[in-house]
Amino acid sequence: MSDTKIWAHSGDSHLLEPDDLWHQIMPKQQADRMPRTERISDSEERVTVDGTSFTRPLPKIYTRKGTTGETIAEVSSRPPGARDLVQRMKDLDEEGIWAEVVYQSIGLWCSLIQDPQLIRDAARAENEWLVSEVQGLAPDRLVPAALMPMLDVADAVAELQHAADIGLHLISLPTGNPPGTKDYNDDSWEPLWAAADEAGMVIGFHIGTDGIDQARAFGGPGGAVLNYVNTTYGGQFVAQKLVLSGVFDRHPDLKVLISEGGATWVPFIGDRMNEGYRQHYMFVRPQLQRLPKEYLYENVYASFQHDETAPAAMTAMGYRNVMWGSDYPHAEGTYGHTQKTLHELFDDVSPEVRHRITRGAFEELFPHVSAPPA
User: Fold this and answer.
1) How are strands ordered across the β-sheet holding 8-14?
2) What is the span of the domain harbouring residue 160?
3) Is residue 320 a part of any domain in this protein?
4) Cβ neighbours of residue 370 under 8 Å, at least 6 residues apart?
5) What's the distance, Cα to Cα, between the start and end of the chain in Å?
6) Is residue 25 part of a domain?
7) Contact criterion met (CB below 8 Å) for 100 and 326
8) What SS3 state is found at 284?
9) Which of 91, 113, 263, 292 has the CB geometry, 3.0–4.6 Å to 273, for a possible disulfide?
10) CB atoms within 10 A of CB 208
11) Which tens digits make up the pLDDT trace of 266-316?
12) 202-206 and 300-304 strand pairing
């Protein structure tokens, strides 16, 4: 591998919010009901959302494996800058990550809130905090995803417009429609797609936000890997729902980012949708102006971390909206071996392909970001 540093943007990273964030930005009565985590053992934590609790496994010390299975290092579960934004920028510089999409961590559980007023107030408070405390630290590098109140479409539209007005560039939606709402292929969501189109706001869907416990869907031998793979499917389904319900016919400039779900699924799912659209045309409603795969290729962007097949989605299958992502600071991310991963992925591809995947697609979505060092 070359010793040259590869600078890349990340289409998938996360913020570990301060433990007392909700109490900093909301009245105590509301803050007490917001998502929080509590370590209950060395290997498990409890997540509580508005009075409802569940547990999930928690990594502590583990062996970091390379892409070919070799041991890289024994590392702790969190990088140094996981909660310290100033240190985070140092981590990014060291790893060779310039700009990054930043999703919430505990905030992703907000999709389980069922009180419209609570989530409406939380989204307004958090988005203003994101602008001042996160984006404000490095506005040309950090692209935080706005929290959205999704129990009422009118609330979502109002908060999207507010997020755009205060300078955010991306909204975060759960891959599964929230409780009590119609699925994303229903016409009731049209005002939200129209508002995002008008505001030039990118819509981000992070995998694993279906609102179900995907981390424990399977047990027995291989269950850990089955559950990990299972989290990816929600992103694939939501992309199909938007395409097949005609969202991109109505809003051809609307852009969607599916984060952390890989990229090679896009050509495959596109082929399957085209086949279904052609061979079962007698059942298809609505009729689209183009074949489904064309919308996936033009309007949907997809990020991956380690997938060795991802560059081939572009070079062999013609899908150009492939984006790399670090998943900082999560355990399955590339922290500690980012440069090794980038060289393994891109040393054998053309400079044009490497630039498109590491920088070009990201800068197409977020043209306000600055260029990394030469």
Assistant:
1) 8-14, 97-103, 142-144
2) 8-18+83-365
3) yes
4) 98, 99, 140, 141
5) 19
6) no
7) yes
8) coil
9) 292
10) 22
11) 999 999 999 999 999 999 999 999 999 999 999 999 999 999 999 999 999
12) unpaired
**Three-state secondary-structure class, residue 347:** coil
Q: Residue 293 belongs to a domain with what CATH number?
A: 3.20.20.140
Residue 233 belongs to some domain of the structure: yes
Question: In the chain, how many domains are there?
Answer: 1
CB atoms within 10 A of CB 177: 21
> Whose structure tokens read 């492939």?
322
pLDDT of residue 112: 87
Contact (Cβ atoms closer than 8 angstroms) between residue 242 and residue 278: no
CA distance 153 to 180: 11
pLDDT at 288 (0 to 100): 97
Q: Kindly report the pTM of this predicted structure.
A: 0.93
Tokens found for residue 119:
């989530």
Contacts of 272 (CB under 8 A, 6+ apart): none
CA distance 55 to 39: 9
3-state helix, strand, coil in the chain (%, to 5): 40, 20, 40
Check pLDDT > 70 for residue 68: no
- Residues 154-176, mean pLDDT to the nearest whole number: 97
* E strand spans, the chain: 8-14, 36-41, 44-49, 52-57, 62-65, 71-75, 97-103, 142-144, 170-174, 202-206, 256-259, 300-304, 322-324
Distance CA 95, CA 326 (A): 10
C-alpha of 252 from chain center: 21
Contact 224, 285 (CB under 8 A): no
Mean pLDDT over the full length of the chain: 93
Cα atoms in the 13 Å half-sphere on the side-chain side of 250: 19
Residue 2 located in a structural domain: no
Query: What distance in Å separates the CA atoms of residue 8 and residue 355, rounded to the nearest whole number?
Result: 8
Length of the chain: 374
Residue 285, H or E segment = none
